[in-house]
Design brief:
With 211 residues, the protein is mainly α. It has 11 helices and 2 strands; from the N terminus they run ββααααααααααα. Helices cover 64% and strands 4% of the residues. 31% of the residues are buried.
Length: 211
């Protein structure tokens, strides 16, 4: 049976309420999987040695594939970066879950932020990419930045509930500050204590009235 609303036919009955079928995701062929893994391995090495702005053509060459193959797997640089850094992000998310019930919420938050800085400074250019991704959830790095904000938000909320951090502090601002510190550390490799000094200064400004 069909009714008509605003000139458009509408179907009622079982056909109208049937759930939409989820399209099947085909598994990657063995050769495509090998190319994918080689590209990730070479990209991780290149990003570590030369930074995240290294040539994509060079990464493809080192992986033994053409640039077209690289773009079939990773449509742009940020998509490749997101895939490369997923392992490190998973480790940071696991660490956040481990700190979720720590007896000192503020210390737990600080420990996790230090871990982010260490991670971000491993690859030159990563902190800048994370800062950009925080404002664009559609970017290839969103798969890293979005779950990180969620995990950090839980730690921040605990610290705020304990009165250790001001209630008007947002996780987005805190992540931007943390990535900014990582960027400063990246630009000052001869100052190993810079991260701790900047993080300490940042947290002094975030302290609640009771701390």
């Amino acid at each position: 049976m069909a009714t008509e609303t605003a000139g458009q036919p509408q179907t009622t009955g079982p056909a109208a309420t049937a759930p939409a079928r989820t399209p099947e995701v085909r598994p990657m062929r063995a050769d495509a999987r090998r190319n994918y893994e080689r590209l990730l391995t070479e990209a991780r090495t290149a990003f570590t040695e030369h930074g995240t702005d290294t040539s994509l053509e060079d990464i493809a060459r080192r992986a033994g594939v053409g640039i077209g193959t690289l773009y079939r797997h990773f449509p742009n640089r940020t998509a490749l970066m997101g895939a490369v850094f997923q392992g490190e992000v998973d480790a940071l998310l696991t660490h956040a879950r481990e700190l979720a019930d720590a007896p000192q919420p503020c210390a737990a938050l600080v420990e996790w932020l230090r871990a982010i800085i260490t991670h971000a400074t491993t690859y030159r250019g990563l902190s800048r990419a994370l800062m950009t991704a925080s404002a664009d959830d559609s970017s290839g790095m969103a798969r890293c930045s979005v779950p990180m904000r969620e995990a950090g938000g839980a730690l921040l909320t605990r610290a705020q509930q304990a009165g250790a951090v001001r209630p008007d502090v947002s996780i987005s601002d805190l992540m931007q500050l943390t990535n900014g510190i990582a960027l400063a550390v990246e630009e000052s490799p001869d100052d190993p204590k810079l991260a701790d000094r900047l993080l300490t200064l940042t947290l002094r400004g975030l302290k609640g009235d009771n701390h």
